[in-house]
Amino acid sequence: MSANNLLSLPFKATDQVRTPAQPPAASSPHPPLGSLNSQVATLADQVVAHIAATSETTHPDLVRPDAHAWQHLRDRIFAAPTGAVPLLSQATLSDLTAYYAQLTFVLTKLPANISVSFPWYPLYTSPSPLPSASGAFPTVSPALSLPNLEYERLSVLYNLAALHAALGTERRRSDEAGIKAAIAAYQNAAGVLSHLLTLLPRLKSSLEGLPPPTDLTAACISALRDLCLAQAQEVAWQKAVMDRLKNGTVAKIALRVAELYQQARDSAESARNGTETSPPFAFPDEVLRYLAIKAAHFAGVAQYRRSLDDLGANRYGDELGRLQLADQKLKEAAGLSKRGVPEAVVHDMKVGGYSTPKSLHKIVTENLTRATKDNDLIYLATPTPPSSLPPIVSAALAKPTLAPELLDPLSHLHAGAGGLGRPFLEALIPREAGEVLALWDDRKKMRLEEGVLRPAKELDAAAAKTLADLNLPAALEATQQPLGVPPTLLEKSTAVQAEGGLERLETMMQDVRRVAKVNQKMLQESNELLDQEAETDAAHRSGHGTMRWTRPPSDESAAPLRQRAEQLVGLLGAAGESDSLVRNKFGEWEEAIRILAGGQPTLARAIPSSTVSATALPPRKLATIRQLRASLDQLSDLRAARARIVDAARTGVAQADIRDKVLREAERRAAQRKEGEGEGVGLADFEGLLEAEGERVMQPYEEEIRRSGARQEDLLNEIKVLNDSFVDAGQSDSATHEREQALQHFDTAASKYHEMLTNLQEGLRFYADLSKLLGELRDACKSFTYARSAEAQDLSRALSAPPPLASASPAPTVEVTPPDTLAVPIPSRSSRSSQQTDGTPRSTRTSARTRAAGATSAGTPTRRTARAAAQVPTAAEEGPREEQAPRTRAQVEEPAPTPAAAGGWDPSQGIRFG
């Protein structure tokens, strides 16, 4: 038989996670829920559906096997469909530990609030009115279902503590092995509950301001933790008595037992009363009585044992004072109600009637009588009052212990030896990690633009402007090659031909005009939809009267859509101005580009020849020309090398993938973040990683661009000096000057061609991005007008119906609000006049949570012979009795009905028109 003068913790019962299956949308690419039963969606079905609906980076089929493994593990632990509690076994202990670790890992992948609800019954309640095994009728209570993973995880963790405590209560404490096992079990239970206390802030923050479950509060869990510690200390006290330790030592151990029981009682009373942040929890009266009896009993035990120590040290006044105090405490315990308290505990309080000849109270009474008589006849010492007694320093032998698998569960989630199994949902990219990866893509593109692309463009533009101001290389080529087309200009002509020449620019401008008209038409359709809805609403309001047509007017309901349309109108206007600038530039350079694209024959006809031969130039000028040509060639090579750096940077940035690092960091931070910060990991936590990775990827390219810029500055200064020498060496004739101007004109035309090509490409990308936003706006306007139309029909039908016989409240007002999903980033065009509207898509989900209320729940001897006659009880006399303890299990919920609301028209009010 097992000792039952100690209490087990109540288990937290649950139901299997099952909900009615929802039919999938006709266009849904995913299989329907409830593959085994078309009428029921299991836990696995709901998890897969949630991931399919919320994850943009992970296909639900990748996590489907893990979702089924999750369901299988939960159903194995809580086997009954309703009111299930864990079985008392070591195997269940391992399963609960593994499930807690899996939930901890899942919380690194999913937010705490998900679309899967987990039902759990409050402590000390039952889903059934049937009596328990002990014959008691428990409080009937429905389950509290919350769509919250922290709620599931903490409920599992609590059951792990309850299972440890139950295994400790089941142990026989008649030998040393049983005592050690019981102490370890209660200490493990206390350790688990202490860990649960540190996790409660996470649950509270994840509930978004709602009160936490009544049984998962700090006061409630503290009471149960101190109860487990008190019972572990009591078993340690039992061993101290069995080992016949000194009375002073036993007194210290017993006092700590009393302190822990009193702490548990105080916390239970605090939980009953509730706080500003925690709802009250109805601790059962029998539990409070048990704690009060135990606290008073062991306070008496401690004083009695210390009185024996005082007797041995001839402290007769202290002995009398402590015996009086022990008698007072034991009388206090005996005077408390025993209803619902384990019989073995009641037996400890009784006098006689069981196999033990004397109870502790009887022994204390007899010792007090003897000591009083001895003192009156022999010692005449004044009994020490309680306030003057030297305090007993308690000795704590029990302490909370926590298994490494619970302290650091993620490090034990592996399929190897000693592991808790492979993590569930390992393939799922967490929401926070997905946001970080999206931010990484934006950051690296931005840094590429700011650190490489823009500086490279600015350097190229600076070089081109300097050469144009110096009329180079046209002046040099006109002098060096007085006849024909210079090779550098032929290269640029070939490049223009390869890009498609003038025809490509004309085609792209037509495409830009076409997509601009399409975008303008989409915006016009959106405005027309809103205008039509406003006209319809105004007609209804006029027909029924403003006093009766109570829904919000169109200009108020459609304000967000109107505002969004105005923003897009501004963007289209700015884009149109940019398009006009490109068309004007095209008209200015069209003829030059046509000649340039014609190749060597057309260029030769368009470029005049010079009459001065290069061989007739002075030697000084020839030397300057050679030096200047060498510097220009170096500048050309430098620009080509810079273009290769830009291409390498584009490739490197595109290939820079930090997904694995982000996932590892997200899991590490989610597991090690400070308690009470709530679920998930913020983007700010990854700033260090993003900065370091950005520096690693971009720093080499940025350094190359900086060196290229410094080298270009030196070359341009050198070219300016050489050009001054070239000009000073001799003046060109008019023919040479005309040739210089022609060469410079066609060189500039090549630059303008590539500039317009870039502008048109950016314009097409801009309109493509803008068309997505305009399509979303048009769809939102269609949905808005459809909903408003249906609402108007219902309201009009209600107002036009014959009045009912009985008066009722006015027709209900339903407000249709436009969706907030249009607040998305607006595309920008770097080389155009653009307008940037910063918007971030946000979706607010409000989870309805149902809260279920918890239950309220001898002669005249000499002093030498008196010492020998002092009676020292055994451990059995002071405390434990052995008897089989009954176990109770909770069952299922019945949701409360929701009252219906009435509505209608009151004929007594008549019909009023606004």
Concise synopsis of the structure shown:
This protein has 914 residues and is mostly helical. 61% of the residues lie in helices and 3% in strands. A two-stranded antiparallel sheet has the order 1-2. It has a two-stranded antiparallel sheet with strand order 3-6. A two-stranded parallel sheet has the order 4-5.
Keywords:
914 residues; Serine Threonine Protein Phosphatase 5, Tetratricopeptide repeat; Butyryl-CoA Dehydrogenase, subunit A, domain 3; two-stranded antiparallel sheet
SSE topology sketch:
Layout: E1 18-20, E2 40-42, H1 43-54, H2 60-77, H3 90-106, E3 113-120, E4 125-126, E5 139-140, E6 144-148, H4 149-170, H5 176-206, H6 218-242, H7 247-273, H8 285-312, H9 316-335, H10 343-349, H11 360-379, H12 404-407, H13 431-469, H14 474-480, H15 487-499, H16 501-544, H17 554-557, H18 559-597, H19 600-606, H20 619-655, H21 659-672, H22 687-728, H23 734-800, H24 863-869, H25 875-878
Helix pairs in contact: 1-2, 2-3, 3-4, 4-5, 5-6, 6-7, 7-8, 8-9, 9-11, 13-20, 13-21, 13-22, 14-23, 15-23, 16-18, 16-23, 18-23, 20-22
CATH architecture of the domain at 504-612 and 742-797 and 818-857: Up-down Bundle
By CATH reckoning, the class of the domain at 504-612 and 742-797 and 818-857 would read: Mainly Alpha
**Uncertain stretches of 5 or more adjacent residues:** 25-37, 351-356, 674-680, 806-826, 828-872, 880-914
Number of helices: 25
How is the largest sheet built, in terms of strand order? 1-2
Which term fits the overall shape?
elongated
The value of Rg in angstroms is 43 Å
Give the amount of beta strand, in percent: under 5%
Distance between the termini: 84 Å
Largest sheet: 2 strands, antiparallel
| CATH topology annotation of the domain at 504-612 and 742-797 and 818-857 | Butyryl-CoA Dehydrogenase, subunit A, domain 3
The count of DSSP E runs of length 2 or more, i.e. the number of strands, is 6
**Helix coverage percent:** 55-70%
**Which structural class is indicated by helix and strand composition?**
mainly alpha
Overall pLDDT score:
80
CATH superfamily of the domain at 504-612 and 742-797 and 818-857: alix/aip1 like domains
Biased composition (Basic and acidic residues): 878-892
Pfam family, one: ALIX_LYPXL_bnd
Region (Disordered): 535-560, 798-914
Protein name: BRO1 domain-containing protein
